[in-house]
Amino acid sequence: MLNNMTDGEEGEGGPNSQGDGNPRESSPFINSGAATSADKSLQYDGKNMALFEEEMDTSPMVSSLLSSLANYTNLPTGSKEHEEAENNEEGARPSKKPVKAPQLGTLMGVYLPCIQNIFGVILFLRMTWMVGVGGVFGSFIIVFMCCSTTMLTAISMSAIATNGVVPAGGSYYMISRSLGPEFGGAVGICFYLGTTFAGAMYILGCIEILLIYIIPQAAIFKIEGLEGPEAELALLNNMRVYGTIVLSFMSLVVFVGVKYVNKLALLFLACVILSIVAVYAGVIKTAMDPPVFPVCLLGNRTLLSKGYDVCAKVVETDNETVTTQLWRTFCDSDSLDATCDEYFTSNNVTEIQGIPGVTSGILAENLFGNYLEKGMFLEKRRVASEESADSPPTGANRYVMADITSFFTLLVGIYFPSVTGIMAGSNRSGDLRDAQKSIPIGTIAAITTTSIVYMSTVVLFGACIEGVVLRDKFGEGVNGNLVIGTLAWPSPWVIVFGSFFSTCGAGLQSLTGAPRLLQAIARDGIIPFLRVFGHGKDNGEPTWALLLTGCICEIGIIIASLDAVAPILSMFFLMCYMFVNLACALQTLLRTPNWRPRFKFYHWALSFLGMSLCLSLMFICSWFYAIIAMGIATCIYKYIEFCGAEKEWGDGIRGISLSAARFALMRLEEGPPHTKNWRPQILVLVSVDAEQNVEQPRLLSLANQLKAGKGLTIVGTSVQGTFLDNYAEAQKADQSLRKLMETEKVKGFPQVVISSNLRDGTSHLIQVGGLGGLKHNTVMVSWPRNWKQPECHQQFRNFIEVVRETTIASLALLVPKNISSYPSNGERFTEGHIDVWWIVHDGGMLMLLPFLLRQHKVWRKCKMRIFTVAQMDDNSIQMKKDLITFLYHLRIDAAVEVVEMHDGDISAYTYEKTLVMEQRSQILKQMHLTKNEKEREIQSITDSSRGSIRRKNPSASRSRPSVDEGASVAEQPEDESVAVSDPKQVRLIHGRTASSTPASPTSPASPTDGAERGQTGANPEAGKDLFNMKPEWEHLSPVDVRRMHTAMRLNEVITKKSKEAKLVLLNMPGPPKNRTNGTNPMDNAFYRDYPAFAHVQVMIFLGFGCLLAFFRLYGFGGMVFNFLTAVFAIQWAVLAQGYFQFSRGGKIHLGVINLLNAEFACAAVLISFGAVLGRTSPLQLLVMALLEVPVFACTEWAVLEYLKINDAGGSVLIHLFACYFGLGVSFMLHRPGLDDGHAKQNSSYQSDILSVMGTLFLWVFWPSFNSALTVRGDDQHRAVLHTFLGLSASTLTAFALSAALNKNGKLTMADVQNVTLAGGVVVGASVDMMISPAAAYALGATGCAACMLGYRYLTPFLARRFRIQDQCGIHNLHGLTGLISCAAGICAILVADEETYGPSLYETFAHRAPAEGDPKLQELRVLIPGLRAGLGRTAREQALFQVAAVFATIGVSALGGVLTGLVVKMPFLDPPPDRMCFDDGLFFEVPPDYDSPIKLINDTTQDSAA
Description:
By secondary structure, the chain is mainly α. About 55% of the residues lie in helices and about 5% in strands. The chain is built from 49 helices and 20 strands. Strands 8-7-6-9-10 form a five-stranded parallel β-sheet, sandwiched between helices. α19 (about 560-590) crosses α22 (about 650-670) and α38 packs parallel to α48 (about 1435-1465).
């Protein structure tokens, strides 16, 4: 690819130029030619490149690449081209000659232009004054700071300039291509303004030299005779008039042709160099022959040279004293007795040498500064003067006075323009033979040279010139000569004319360069309103830019003061240099792959130091001007950002954005955001039509109205097909999304997915949307249209899958109904309400949505109303007060209304099926705390519940199974606003057109059928029933009917209350987790709990029944009375336990788990029954059960609700309670006649076999008894294992001890029937804990031994000493082993820790889990989703509560047993007489020979006796 251009392509203005007017650069990487296909075939023909012919547009041949790199040229639209164009203007335009390669080297191309631009007006007009005022030391510091700044900037600039090919355009291009169009445009304008004001400064310096030092008589406004402000105003007016004339002339010269400026450039450069050489020559001459340069002082004050002819008051002429002109200046006459100025009279006139020479030692006097206020006299140091403090100063026009107030920062601002001009080399980069080599060397060499000159002149001026002369800015005390000119050799006029021509040349160069810089900015197109200045003459001359430059330059001329203009341009140059350093530093730190400068002597620290110096100098010069300059740059930056053309230049700011984005994303990955930082990150799912246009544009309007959350917004859609075939459609859809997002002003990102079907595409968007930690947490999708129509069935199913997927992903889901009726961003509601139906607490999302909407102008004037549903037992008035308080602490302004629905069962449904309803109730109950506690609790509950939006649903407890996710509600007609949501999902329902009905799309029944089922399935008298008798294991259809009834009732209320609302917000439970809408057997209480229930049934009715039939004549009583008592106790326990534990909404809720708990209560009654077996009537047993069950239920409720102990196997609440309750009853029913035993109190061969069968039933099913109520999973597994091991150990130990303790070494059946079961009791308290199999075995053996010894020794002891007749030995099997079990459980609790259990510790010991609001609870919930908050107890605290529960249970049960015994002992309960105890004949019809064994024994005894 060759770099040949036709005439029409010349420069930026050619007719064939493309794009935004930029010159099309020859690039080896992009084939920008417009070759035809035929040309291409010819181009590659015979080059063996046919294989890659199609890729040549983007991947050129290697040979072409190397040729383009070698022949690369990019000449600037500078002076050479314009000069050639002007020469060719006359006659026919000849064909363009081949462009010659640039030939300028480092000296001519960089070094000398920089020298010429750096040396300027400040050196000649203000350097001596700066040394005089600031002192050599202060001035040297100023020069060193400024030169260091430019040197550091030059190092940064050299790195940028050598990083690839440098385009013509200098610093603007370097900054814009490094920092982006915004910074580039802002700094480019600042650089342009600085160059323009520099032109004004040079012109003002030119006029100052002309009117003060060359032709003072040319002043239009005469200064002679004026003093003070009048003289200053006259000087400024002269500057303005002549400055305008000179500016017009220079602009005309530049307009006519830049070639004239170029031809004079060498002359201007020669003037600068010659003037500096003359200064150094003068310094050398002063060392050998100081010039005679007198200065007249009156006292210590410097006199104006025009005010005297001789530096004396009087002179002797012909022996006569004659007054001088000086006398007449200070006196009212020329006579010697005239009245003179008091200061004139008191002080003598002296004449000093103005330039004493470099060897005079004057340097010590000039070393430190002498800052002056405006109007102060120039006084020589170390010269005495007499001045009366009372006499005011007079004769202001007689002395040399300070024209401005001077201070250090002013000197910095005035001096800094003298070090600018370092960009001259980079501005000529297109003319250089090797820019990457010449720019660093030439620029740094030029700065080094000028810095040496400046610093040396500071010292030399202070060493050669008298201080009062240095401080004389305009040479008023030295006959109006230029101070630096007085030092020059051979003549002051060398400096005067040299500086004059130098300033003229610098002004012309500024007026030449500034318009071209503006033209380059305008042609880049980044600032739209400047595009007009990109046009010019046919040869590219920036005519319009020159006109604007002249106008801006005139502003500096009107200011008219060189000292005032210098700080202004200092600001702009310093800002430009600051961003050059910033560009280099950023590129270095970002380490972008294309950052490979050839100049290696740079470092990011140097660039930052240079940038800091630039910023510091800006505020040192003038904080006021610095703020203005930065304000201008900021305004331009924001203008480009909002209105400018979008450019992608691979700039560093873009790199910073990428790095910052990567850093922020990595930080987000460190952990989930705090709940206070939570905000809705919305994924908006839209559909597109066949033309790839969005079908629901109002979804984006709603997303815009929710943007107060300032979160992420992703607008996603799916295109059906394959990526290869449908990529074009996807791109079209992407453009459609971008256009709509721009129209709706939605800040976010579009995302289009191509998938084989729309369902999978939507699923992919939900799964992979976002990046890293910046992912969506909310999905917005429109309610499906016409979903009841058969042809839209798939759309409806897709919507259901979206609901399920968001539920699984724990995402909030927003479903607007009737989205086409929602307001656009241009609409305004002047009044109305946003109604929030707070049915369940969803973590705060429902409260957040109206707050976000009301931040938008559409909804701003709408008021917020919150409705909540009161339950049957709620105090509506108190509930409303509590909710108002809650909203006050949430800082939400809303009206509150409590809706009562007593005849529906919405409250029962909510309490039974959702755990989040408990959370809402908990929030409201917290209102009854103190003020401080209330604020802490509300914030804690709000933060934790809002955090639940990100967490999974808590698992349901065993006592409150939840089927929220598996429920469905029939649909309502399409014209109604319908929504349903997971507790973490929110639906927006628009209520302007219709009412709002909560429903679920998972049961697509017709409205009529659904309504009928709702009406027939619900019992109108259900609210009056004491129980809700719908078991959880029933078929799902009754639940559907119930939910439909609930939906209809709630819909009526919402329709009535929110009929006029602009918007209705509510949340409802979501669809079932299983996609078939069926019930998972293990999620059903029947399949989960019924096996354990059946096993306990066997133990109750067969195990206990057979075991209690061991008396030979009481088998009927043992089994039948057990049957009777068990059935009665279970039914009574359902009521008693239901009242204490399972009552909600005025009803006792039944399920398998309730029956299982009732059977445990029945087990306690049957154990107690064993203590009085054979000594009570059936009526007594029923009364005993009637009284024991409530005591048991109350004790159980109190211990579990308040002491909150661990008792999986029932060792405390079943065995200990039943034992001591039975012993209490037995104590009160003591029969003295039975102390020595009873004839019928023995067993038979058959009764022992039957009893052993009961033992076997209990032994086999005892693991189910102990594990029935443990936590599902590992805890239940451990319970079964430990129980089996304990029973096994007790069985083996029982057989061993029975034989060992028998005198005959035989087994005793009583031991086999009872002691073998001790292991099941003794492991009960620790059965679900990690006590190890060995510990379980040891406990079984220990419990067996205790039980065996109890039967041998303790039972007779209790009967003999305490009148406690224990027929079945329940104290041995249940009391002693129960106490051992409790002690083992307490020990196991004390040693339990996280190291052993892991996070499951807080499932096994639920009350040791952290309390709500504890950060540790959030961490644990990540590991164990759904972990419930506990009480935060320690192991020691839990153990103490266990001990308290043991003693409390024993005490309550014993007392209850004694009181029950008093009642049961009453005669009217028909107790059996002593002789009929243990005999079935009293209560049953028995066979005639049932007592034959006894008769046989009696007969045998009588025969023996006979």
